[in-house]
Design a protein that fits this description.
The chain is an alpha+beta fold. The protein has a single domain, classed as Glutaredoxin (3-Layer(aba) Sandwich). 45% of the residues lie in helices and 13% in strands. The protein has a 4-stranded mixed β-sheet with strand order 2-1-3-4, with helices on one face. The termini are far apart. The structure holds glutathione (GSH). The site of glutathione has 10 residues, from helix 1. Pfam families: GST_N. It comes from Coffea canephora. InterPro entries: Glutathione-S-Trfase_C_sf, Glutathione_S-Trfase, Glutathione_S-Trfase_N, GST_N_Theta, GSTT1/2/3, Thioredoxin-like_sf.
Length: 131
């Protein structure tokens, strides 16, 4: 399976995908989509992810997928070398992973994104205010 990751390492969901692949020995090609340069809204990238966000993946030049949790679930299921504990075959254990993933999207991420951006990324980047 030939896997391409469309990512920007500034992005937490992108880092989650990269770390998951590295920890599980999944080979991939990393394609940087620099959202500070608005590369995510280019017509070329829109063909990969119509939502114009990172991360997204492409498999074998055909199958495309966006949303980090959907990507993580897919990778855990599609690559046989991934240990079962990441996304268990047991339905009850799997449901608990799904529950935490869904909770994270609507809770943990909202809180931490603003905090990290305003305290660290913003002041260190071109988003810094001129005042
Ligand atoms: N729920 C999505 C969130 C994706 C997302 O918000 N990506 C941000 C980077 S963390 C992005 O692409 N931002 C570019 C923009 O808003 O223009 C996921 O988990 O994949």
């Amino acid at each position: 399976m030939k896997l391409k990751l469309f990512v920007d390492r500034l992005s937490q969901p992108c880092r989650a995908i990269l770390i998951f692949c590295k920890l599980n020995g999944i080979e991939f090609e990393e394609v940087t989509i620099d959202f500070c340069k608005r590369e995510n809204i280019s017509p070329e990238y829109q063909k990969i992810n119509p939502m114009q966000l990172v991360p997204a993946i492409e498999v074998d030049g055909e199958f495309k997928l966006f949303e980090s949790h959907a990507i993580l679930r897919f990778l855990a299921s599609a690559f046989p070398g991934v240990a079962d504990h990441w996304y268990p075959a047991d339905l009850f254990e799997r449901a608990q992973i799904d529950s935490v993933l869904d909770w994270r999207h609507s809770n943990l991420r909202h809180g931490t994104t603003g905090l990290v951006f305003n305290s660290t990324v913003g002041p260190a980047s071109e988003f810094r205010s001129s005042s």
